[in-house]
């Protein structure tokens, strides 16, 4: 690129972002064994929900079988899914969590 020493450098993004990134829904699945309180704690800890919202989402999943806990870019969504599955395993609950494109 041409240098304009008098005017100062021409700054250009290396990779101009013309498109919004694909977003992913992180999804919780219901099961018969994971305690309600444990699901609420997951929503507070990994999805930054307050107790009221966490309880609402947990009850939605409990009643409908499935529910969205958050929407993120791919890397963040992947991390959330991994964190939830690891935490559930650690506590020997069968809680399932997955992601899908929005
Ligand atoms: N169905 C569970 C129970 O009755 C509670 C639960 C809610 C489990 C949401 C998983 O993603 C879930 N203890």
Features:
about 100 residues, alpha+beta, three-stranded antiparallel β-sheet, 3 helices, 3 strands, about 40% helix, binds L-tyrosinamide, Ribosomal_bL12_C/ClpS-like, ClpS, ClpS_core
Detailed description of the structure:
This protein is an alpha+beta fold and 102 residues long. It contains 3 helices and 3 strands, in the order E-H-H-E-H-E. Strands 2-1-3 form a 3-stranded antiparallel beta sheet. Helix 1 crosses helix 2. The mean pLDDT is 92. The structure holds L-tyrosinamide (TYC). The site of L-tyrosinamide has 13 residues, from strand 1, helix 1 and helix 2.
Helix-and-strand structural type: alpha+beta
Alpha carbon gyration radius: 20 Å
Q: Any idea what the shape is? A: elongated
The count of helical stretches stands at: 3
Mean pLDDT: 92
Tell me what portion of residues adopts beta-strand conformation.
Answer: 15-25%
Instruction: Kindly state the percentage of residues in helix.
Output: 40-55%
Q: What low-confidence regions span 5 or more consecutive residues with pLDDT below 50?
A: none
> What spatial order of strands do you see in the largest sheet?
2-1-3
Query: What small ligands are held by the chains?
Result: L-tyrosinamide
Q: Could you state the oligomeric state of the chains shown?
A: single chain
User: What sequence of helices (H) and strands (E) makes up the elements?
Assistant: EHHEHE
Family: Belongs to the ClpS family.
Keywords: Hydrolase, Protease
Function: Involved in the modulation of the specificity of the ClpAP-mediated ATP-dependent protein degradation.
InterPro entries: ClpS (IPR022935), ClpS_core (IPR003769), Ribosomal_bL12_C/ClpS-like (IPR014719)
């Amino acid at each position: 690129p041409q240098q304009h020493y008098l005017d100062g450098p021409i700054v250009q993004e290396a990779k101009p972002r013309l498109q919004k990134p694909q977003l992913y829904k992180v999804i919780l699945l219901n099961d018969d064994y994971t305690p309600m309180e444990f699901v609420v704690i997951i929503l507070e800890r990994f999805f930054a929900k307050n107790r009221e919202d966490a309880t609402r989402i947990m009850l939605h999943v409990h009643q409908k079988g499935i529910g969205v806990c958050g929407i993120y870019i791919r890397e963040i969504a992947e991390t959330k899914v991994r964190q939830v599955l690891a935490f559930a395993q650690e506590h020997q609950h069968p809680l399932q969590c997955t992601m899908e494109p929005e």
